[in-house]
């Protein structure tokens, strides 16, 4: 069993160290949390397993006092080792059924959907959220399929019973569009990680989401 009690309109920071532009990684994340981020995903594609676990543990300690859950991208072993709050997988990562068996009860499981077939299949899975990916075109991740755009998000909202997250190309100018067309979780990399002030950026995004 997974949790499916995510409150509406969460601001979800997905980390990317290069996007932090040389600034201290932990400083960027903590600033963003103080500015209004409510969930954090540690997404590391190039760290060794040991370094990934060390980073996850340190981040977990930072996030604990804020009561902000830490989700690990791709790696169930890293999530278990660091006692993280959940795992996010894509369509070519570990299958939901296996992940669900390996994770203790109550952990968050997020899954990315890149096509209408993915959305339909995900109805069979007891996931915590389904990520509509990418919502808009983005330079941050280039190995992606065609963006869903707002019409696609509306289609997913009509055809999925899951809590929806939206990721890709979201900034202060378009976040409200995502939030009012079915996404309860808004996931962001560069508009927070690369902002001059991650605190201000998160604060502005949170306000723009509800205005
Ligand atoms: N998955 C789909 S798009 C994306 C990921 C990790 C990157 C989103 O980055 P940004 O900078 O918020 O567009
Ligand atoms: Mg993945």
Named at the architecture level, the CATH assignment is Alpha-Beta Barrel
Beta-strand residue fraction:
15-25%
How many DSSP helices? Answer: 9
Helix coverage percent of residues?
25-40%
Whole-number mean pLDDT: 95
Distance between the termini: 35 Å
- Give the strand line-up of the largest sheet: 1-2-3-4-5-6-7-8
Largest sheet: 8 strands, parallel, barrel
CATH superfamily: Aldolase class I
By helix and strand content, what is the structural category?
A: alpha/beta
Strand tally: 8
CATH first level: Alpha Beta
From the alpha-carbon coordinates, what is the Rg to the nearest angstrom?
Answer: 16 Å
CATH topology: TIM Barrel
List bound small molecules. 4-methyl-5-hydroxyethylthiazole phosphate, magnesium ion
**Which overall shape is indicated by the principal axes computed on the Cα atoms?**
globular
Order of helices and strands: EHEHEHEHEHEHEHEHH
Main features:
binds 4-methyl-5-hydroxyethylthiazole phosphate; 9 helices; 8-stranded parallel barrel; alpha/beta; 211 residues; disordered N terminus
Textual characterization of the structure:
GO terms for molecular function: magnesium ion binding; thiamine-phosphate diphosphorylase activity. This protein has 211 residues and is of the alpha/beta class. It contains nine helices and eight strands. Helix 1 (25-35) packs parallel to helix 9. The longest helix is centred in the N-terminal third of the chain and has 15 residues, at 49-63. Residues 1-7 have low confidence and may be disordered. Bound molecules: 4-methyl-5-hydroxyethylthiazole phosphate (TZP) and magnesium ion. Residues 73-74, 89-90, 93 line the site of magnesium ion. 4-methyl-5-hydroxyethylthiazole phosphate binds at residues 14, 133-134, 138, 140-141, 144, 167-170, 188-191.
């Amino acid at each position: 069993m997974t949790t499916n009690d995510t409150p509406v309109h969460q601001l979800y920071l997905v980390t990317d160290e290069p996007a932090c532009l040389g600034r201290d990684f932990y400083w960027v994340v903590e600033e963003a949390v103080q500015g209004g981020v409510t969930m954090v995903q540690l997404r590391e594609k190039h760290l060794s397993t040991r370094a990934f676990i060390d980073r996850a543990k340190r981040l977990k300690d930072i996030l604990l006092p804020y009561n902000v859950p830490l989700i690990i991208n791709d790696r169930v072993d890293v999530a278990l080792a660091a006692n993280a709050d959940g795992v996010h997988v894509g369509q070519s990562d570990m299958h939901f059924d296996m992940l669900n068996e390996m994770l203790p009860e109550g952990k968050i499981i997020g899954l990315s959907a890149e096509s209408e077939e993915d959305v339909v299949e995900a109805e069979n899975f007891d996931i915590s959220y389904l990520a509509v990916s990418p919502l808009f075109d983005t330079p941050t991740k280039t190995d992606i399929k065609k963006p869903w755009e707002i019409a696609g998000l509306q289609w997913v909202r009509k055809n999925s019973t899951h809590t929806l997250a939206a990721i890709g190309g979201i900034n202060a100018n378009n976040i409200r569009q995502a939030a009012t067309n079915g996404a309860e979780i808004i996931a962001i990399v560069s508009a927070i990680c690369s902002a001059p002030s991650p605190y201000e950026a998160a604060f502005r995004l949170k306000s723009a989401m509800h205005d």
